[in-house]
Specification:
By secondary structure, the chain is of the alpha/beta class. It folds into five domains: 4-201, no CATH class; 229-306 and 591-683, Rossmann fold; 312-402, no CATH class; 432-467 and 476-533; 689-922, no CATH class. The chain is built from 39 helices and nine strands. The strands form three sheets. The protein has a five-stranded parallel β-sheet with strand order 2-7-8-1-9, sandwiched between helices. Helix 24 links the parallel strand 7 and strand 8. The chain is flat and about 125 Å long. The two termini are 53 Å apart. Mean pLDDT is 75; it is low at 1-13, 568-575, 667-671 and 921-926.
């Protein structure tokens, strides 16, 4: 939020653009406002740059031309055309002013003063006569070619040019403001950070600017969703079929849930259900049925039935209480309003009734008598043609009981008649003010001062209302000033002042006090009521499918049992009868086959109803891979496949990669459950480097390409991890207190390595170790010591790097002899290989990102082919999840492309001693 001072200065600069609409001044204003942007200020503060230096760089001719060239669209064309027209008018105005012998300002002032004097003394009639007289005199002088007429014509021509110039000047100012906004958004805001980076020096993209990163902190936010390959593929598959079951598979965190949520949101009736963590198909279908019925009832615009209030008496009391509350609130406003309206219009209503009651009654009786006679003639058989028509009408009316055109015709006729009659009554009521001759005779002409004062009060009221409803505000120190709350009482005071002024004015009061005004008000109110009544229509009957959903909900969630008893005494006593009625409601689920049949039948009806309106129904089932193994997931699909394949209903099921692989191998060599359960499959692959750039750019503009490359490499293109590493980059900046990529990446990579190796060491602790095999645990401990301790000097960095190389370059086959390796379990050897491979990957990231001139080195690595591309690091990270043995050759190829060594460097520690300011060359070798 900008402070009040900055906001005031920027507003003044925008006003200066209106007063000085030349292009250079607008560009300078846009540069100043771009320099006041918080992002630019943080960028300047991080490297101690002054705004004056950046402004001087931005004002260079070729830089300004480049920034303006980005914004030469429609707004710029309109601005330049208006500015050129203004310059032509200015030139004509100056030329005429030099040649004119009378000053047009003096002439116009004298004419205006004379006309205003005549208007005040004589009124509008005298003013019209004076204008006609001056026009005739001017015509006579012009015919005689009098010098007065020539000089006066020149003065009036100058006044006309001045007026045209003023109008064009306002237009130029408005278009200058409009183009200034475009130049700021598309020109200087992107160009100023580039100028700052030019002044910073080498590798400007390696600079990190901290921010709140709100887009990264909300991974499920729908406004940050970016379409990728999986989204396009799923949309194509949905467009190719009318219904079916499509599986969405991919690694955990790749965005399967986001893809399902996006599809459900775009559907006309969408439902996202979470698969149970334990294997319970019956409970899952029961929950799915309830949610489907509730979703359809809400989508149709009806209330979902509640089953919590079990007592009929309590339900009745609750409905009565809610109805009484609504009636009370309605009565608080309706009764006083009705009383005031009746009090104000009662006299007019009674006068109308007295004038037209008898004539309307006679007309109604005549029409009733004629109708009764016609009915009697038809009954007695005297009107044969009418009898045939009446009989045919009865048959047509019966056959149209299911037709939709008849209710629409009646509704349209009612609406048109009410609207026509209502608008006609309101128009006649207002027009009577103009044609009433008696009212015109009793009222005196309205003075101009009264019109001006009333217009100013009305304008003030409208301005206050507009500011109140604008929803704007500004910051005054630490407080937020809301214009709506400030101008709400001001608008009320302005409205009251306008009303009091109109009532107190001697010219306007006779207009309000006319005796026919209540009658006009009555006609206007009746017309307004008719217009409102034309839009009324009775609530349609509840659709059959909504009723079926209600009944299905009642069947799924409740069961009702009733008992009636009748008691009678003996015959010897007085006969007495007694009765009792008991009702109880409890929750009981139906059995599984009945539940499946009911759900499938209901889905079929809902799908058909939506298909008739060209709408889609999508049911997404997420987290099927949480069930455990692929066997349990396939068993779950086998249980629920009875409700799949419903016509006009799309099923989207999120499954694990192994289930997707089972579907891909369909028919080889035998038929599986996926063949009959799934119609197609969409693979959600990890994002490419370009897709990661789009995803992070959608959520924040603080992560430049080097940081995107780092997050993409660490995450392997997995969406969930990509966002998490984007947040961790900001955390590492706070931890390292540095804005450089080399420091931030070192802290992030080493922290991830420390956590990963700690996890491997925990798993290795579960195995038995001997004196010969415990060397690998010592290597883990040494790395953990260097990773957990701070590194105050280059010596510690070099030692950590050296030990990491020794650990990373030697897999388990090289670390143990065959005899010693035989003492370890195969699982332990595999864990050692995986830990060494991950250390090899982390070492490669350190060698790439913690060395300066990343952009230059990345361009050199790209010349080696695909192994030097930025996305290759993410592929290596993905390969680590498959096999450490296949990941090592890929990492070695990447190191070769980046010109990195494939063996430990024994001279690293000795060379770092000369750069150590703490220990110097006397640092002992640890």
């Amino acid at each position: 939020m900008l402070s009040f001072t900055v906001w005031r200065d920027l507003r003044w600069l925008r006003f200066a653009n209106f007063t000085r609409p030349d292009q250079d001044h607008i560009y300078q204003w846009c540069v100043l406002e771009a320099l006041s942007h918080p992002r630019t200020e943080r960028l300047l503060a991080s490297h101690d740059l002054s705004k004056a230096a950046v402004e001087q760089d931005m004002l260079r001719p070729h830089i300004s031309l480049l920034a303006v060239s980005r914004c030469r669209g429609r707004a710029y064309s309109e601005y330049r055309y208006a500015y050129e027209v203004l310059e032509d008018l200015e030139e004509e105005r100056r030329t005429l002013a030099d040649e004119s012998r009378w000053d047009w300002r003096v002439v116009v002032s004298l004419l205006a003063g004379a006309m205003f004097t005549v208007l005040l003394l004589g009124g509008l009639l005298w003013l019209g006569g004076a204008v006609v007289a001056v026009a005739v005199l001017w015509f006579v002088l012009a015919r005689r070619r009098s010098p007065v007429s020539e000089r006066g014509s020149e003065a009036l021509l100058g006044a006309g040019l001045a007026f045209s110039w003023a109008v064009c000047r306002v237009d130029v100012g408005i278009k200058a403001l409009r183009w200034g906004k475009v130049l700021l958004a598309e020109g200087t805001l992107p160009a100023v950070p580039d100028a700052v980076r030019r002044l910073i020096g080498d590798e400007p993209d390696s600079l990190f600017l901290p921010d709140r990163f709100s887009g990264l902190r909300t991974p499920r936010s729908p406004e940050h969703v970016v379409d990728n390959r999986a989204t396009s593929q799923l949309q194509r598959k949905l467009a190719q079929v009318e219904y079916g079951t499509i599986a969405v598979c991919g690694p955990r965190g790749s965005g399967k849930t986001t893809l399902l949520e996006h599809c459900v949101k775009d559907a006309d009736l969408g439902l996202l259900a979470q698969a149970p963590a334990t294997y319970a198909p019956h409970d899952f279908l029961l929950s799915l049925s309830v949610r489907l019925c509730e979703a359809y009832v809400r989508e149709a615009g009806y209330d979902v039935p509640e089953f919590t209030r079990l007592s009929p008496a309590r339900r009745m009391l609750g409905r009565l209480r809610a109805g009484a509350r609504r009636l009370g609130r309605w009565s608080v406003f309706a009764l006083p309003a009705a009383a005031l309206v009746v009090l104000g219009l009662s006299a007019s209503a009674r006068s109308l009734y007295a004038l037209y009651a008898d004539s309307l009654g006679d007309a109604a009786r005549e029409r009733g008598d004629a109708l009764r006679e016609r009915v009697v003639d038809i009954w007695e058989g005297h009107a044969v043609v009418a009898s045939l028509l009446v009989t045919a009408g009865g048959v047509v009316w019966w056959r149209s009981r299911h037709a939709a055109w008849l209710p629409r015709l009646v509704r349209a006729g009612w609406r048109q008649a009410c609207h026509l009659l209502g608008f006609l009554l309101m128009l006649v009521s207002l027009a009577s003010l103009v044609v009433d001759e008696q009212l015109a005779e009793r009222t005196s002409p309205v003075r101009p001062g009264t019109v001006v004062a009333g217009g100013l009060l009305f304008l003030a009221w409208r301005v206050c209302v507009g500011v109140r409803d604008s929803g704007g505000g500004f910051s005054l120190g630490r407080r937020r000033i809301d214009l709506g709350r400030v101008f709400q009482p001001v608008a009320a005071v302005a409205a009251c002042s306008l009303l009091l002024y109109l009532v107190d004015s001697p010219e306007i009061y006779p207009l309000l006090a006319d005796e026919d005004n209540p009658l006009r008000m009555t006609g206007f109110v009746v017309g307004l009521v008719l217009v409102k009544a034309g839009g009324w229509q009775p609530r349609p009957a509840e659709p059959e499918l909504v009723t079926r959903c209600r009944n299905h909900l009642y069947r799924l969630q409740t069961i009702q049992t009733s008992s009636n008893t009748l008691n009678a005494t003996g015959a010897a006593q007085v006969l007495s009868l007694g009765g009792s009625h008991a009702t109880s409601v409890s929750t009981i689920p139906p059995n599984f086959p009945e539940l499946v049949d009911a759900l499938r039948d209901l889905l079929t009806r809902i799908g058909a109803a939506y298909a008739q309106r060209n709408k889609t129904v999508v049911i997404a089932i997420d987290e099927v891979d949480r069930l455990g193994s692929d066997t349990e997931a396939l068993a779950f699909l086998s249980e629920i496949k009875a409700v799949l394949g419903v016509p006009h209903v799309y099923y989207l099921i999120s499954v694990a990669e192994d289930v997707g692989a089972t579907f891909v191998r369909r028919g080889l060599p035998h038929r599986g459950v996926t063949d009959s359960s799934l119609d197609d499959i969409v693979h959600v692959q990890p994002s490419t480097f370009q897709e990661s750039q789009k995803i992070l750019a959608k959520r924040t503009d603080r992560l430049t390409d080097p940081y995107v490359m780092l997050a993409h490499a660490l995450s392997g293109g997995i969406l969930r991890d990509l966002l998490r590493y984007g947040i961790q980059i900001s955390e590492m900046q706070e931890k390292s207190q540095s804005y450089e990529l080399t420091d931030i990446s070192r802290h992030l990579i080493l922290e991830e390595l420390s956590e990963t190796l700690a996890g491997f060491r925990t798993l290795l602790s579960r195995h038995q170790w001997t004196r010969d095999t415990s060397a690998v645990l010592s290597a883990f401990g040494t790395l953990d010591t260097y990773l957990s301790a701070p590194a105050p000097c280059p010596c510690d960095h070099a030692r950590l790097h050296s030990h990491l190389e020794e650990f990373a370059f030697h897999p388990a086959s090289e670390r143990f002899s065959p005899a010693v390796a035989g003492q370890l379990a195969p699982e332990a050897l595999q864990l050692v290989d995986e830990a060494a491979a991950y250390a090899h990957f982390s070492l490669t990231l350190l060698d790439i990102f913690t060395v300066k001139r990343l952009t230059e080195r990345a361009a050199l690595a790209a010349r080696h082919g695909p192994d030097g591309e930025p996305g290759r690091l993410a592929q290596a990270r993905q390969e680590l999840g498959i096999s450490a043995h296949s990941a090592r050759p890929l990492i070695d190829d990447i190191r070769t492309a980046w010109s990195l060594p494939l063996q430990p460097d024994p001279t690293r520690i000795r060379s770092s001693r000369h750069d150590c300011p703490t220990h110097g060359s006397a640092t002992p070798d640890h």
